Each structure stands twice: as structure tokens, then as C-alpha cells.
Amino acid sequence: MRTAAVVGTGLIGTSAALALTGRGITVYLEDADPDAARTAAALGAGTVEEPEEPVDLAIVAVPPALVGKVLADCQRRGLARCYTDVASVKSGPRAEVAALGCDTVHYIGGHPMAGREQSGPLAARADLFEGRPWVLTPTPDTSTDTLNAALELVALCGAMPVVMDAAAHDRAVALVSHTPQLLSSLVAARLEHADETSVRLAGQGVRDVTRIAASDARMWLDILSANAGVVADILDELAADLSTTVAALRSLQDGDEAARQAGVAGIEAVMRRGNHGQARIPGKHGAPPTRYETVVVAIGDQPGELGRLFGEVARAGVNIEDVAIDHSAGQRVGLVQLSVAPSAVHELVVTLRARGWNVRD
């Protein structure tokens, strides 16, 4: 691949363009909003000039409802030799592409499983896709050259290709992406009118659950509209689980010992199911999940403290597998939670304390 076009310079399109330009690919940028394309170009994602000849691959980075229309326009103009998209739903766009009579030999659906709660070109990152799955959904008549072009795009962006049927993809993302987004929003919505004292008690748990509730509502309306039926089916199943859990909680307040024990069993069952489901989520680099221990260190809210802590951990010869920071309300201090291999915990705690760090038990 020597040349590419990105049509739609939002978060995903601009991030792909940045990754490609970083690998020496000449990228041409288009957007219905010229200012967005110029912003992406200013960030180093490519040029807003028109290509003089068809590019090797065009990436259609628009909402699911617009994929068919935009693809048809790009093919009419002869923009590229091969085409792909990055929409987060695949069945609807595929049906529209077929209905519009688009060339499906030189088109393959795609969906990089990466994103942020921010949107727009200014939120883009060249490393957004590194190590992330990138689903490809070829049609029966997708050519080998088109598949290879898409695979090259995935490799250039540092992602991992996963070939799936479009309908299977939509069921999967409804479970692991679309439903969690709605649940995060529903939990965060309970905070909208909560009293200030309650909100100030928020810790890392509620921050984790509600992080993606900050996502662009308009963007998610496009996504959910395109996969509404499948998401609704999963929510129906969740609603049944919620009803059972509510009944179990009510039983815990019952004066009857048998009812209370039934409630205990019900809550324990749902918690254990959650344990088992969470344990199935792949760990680092797609490997089987690994259990790490957490070392909690209190640090001051001042420049350089976090970097100094990471430097100390590195000098101790310990690899940080994950990190989270819990900020104390009303105080200029934070608790840094370092996830490390269990075998490294004792030596790391001893080393950090010897160097003056406040390691919490």
C-alpha cells in the first residue's frame, strides 16, 4: 500500500490516517465538514488535496447509516481500487450496500474494536488500534486483493485481524460494547440528581463503571439505531436477571429464615456468575487472563510524582501490568493501584517503603 483515502475524519478515521501516515503512506482526507478534514490534516493525518489517480484503499469512516451512501459515491467517483469501512455495525450497512448496487467485489466491511469516550479529530491517536482486534466481514464475492488490502491496513495500524460473519459480529458487539455503553449510561444517570454528599463519596468502582457514560450521545444513537434489535434482546435477558436479583435482595430483609437463605443463595449465584464471566475476558495481548496482585501507593498531587514512582518500580525490576488512580475528594493526594505479578509484591513493597513511599496495607 502506497496511498489511501480516509472519508470521515472523526476519531476513528483520523486515528487510522495518523497510523498510516506514520508508516509512510500518503493519505488523502475527506469530510462533509471541511473544517474537520483541515483539522485532521493539521494534526499530520494527511492532505485535503484530491488524489490524481485512484488510491490503493479508501476507508469509509462514517456512521453506520451513511456507509452505503458514501461508499456508492466513492465508487462512482473512482476514488480507490479497494474499499473498506470502520462502522461498528455490519449487517445493516451490508444490506444497504447491496441495495444500492455497490461493487462488493472490491469492498469489505471492517470494524476496529477500539475507541475513546472523546470524539472528533482532536481526540485521535496514531496508536489507538495497537493490539486491538479489527474485525473484517467479507462477502462471498469479496476479492482476495480486497481482503489482502484490508489485512495490510490492519497490520499497518498495529491491530489484530479477526474475520467474522456480519451477523455474528453484530451479536458479539451488542454483548461486549453496545450493552455495556447503555448500562454505563444508566448507572451514571442515577447520579444526575443525587445529593452532593453522595456524589462526593464516589470511588474507583463507580468511576470504572461510568467512564464510558461520557461518550458522545449522538454518535451512540447512530450505533444503537443500527443494532437496536440485538441490543434489546440482551437487555431483556438482563432485565430478567435484575428482577431475580431484586427479589433476592428483598428476601434478605424477610423475617423468615428460609426466605433469607434463598436471598443469600440468589445473590451469591449472580456474583459467582459474574466472577466466571469476568474471568473469560482475555488478558494482555489477548492471552488467557492472569490474576495480578495490587500494590497501593499514596502520592501527592504534584508534577513528576507519578513518573518518579514508575521509575522506582522499574529500578526494582518489576513490570507494571496495569494501573489505576483513585483520587481523594477534597485532598491533594491520590492512591495509585499498581497491578503486578504476585511473585513481585513482597520485594516491591519492601523496596518502595525503604525509599520513602507510603505503601498502604
From TrEMBL:
Domain of life: Bacteria
InterPro entries (UniProt xref): 6-PGluconate_DH-like_C_sf, ACT-like_dom_sf, ACT_dom, NAD(P)-bd_dom_sf, PDH_C, PDH_N, Preph/Arog_dehydrog, Prephen_DH
Coiled-coil region list: none
Catalytic activity: prephenate + NAD(+) = 3-(4-hydroxyphenyl)pyruvate + CO2 + NADH
Pfam families given in the database record: PDH_C (PF20463), PDH_N (PF02153)
SUPFAM superfamilies: 6-phosphogluconate dehydrogenase C-terminal domain-like, ACT-like, NAD(P)-binding Rossmann-fold domains
Keywords noted in UniProt: Amino-acid biosynthesis, Aromatic amino acid biosynthesis, NAD, Oxidoreductase, Tyrosine biosynthesis
TM helices/strands, residue ranges: none
Listed EC numbers: 1.3.1.12
Matching NCBIfam families: PRK06545.2-1, PRK06545.2-3, PRK06545.2-4
Similarity section: Belongs to the prephenate/arogenate dehydrogenase family.
Record protein name field: Prephenate dehydrogenase
Organism: Kitasatospora nipponensis
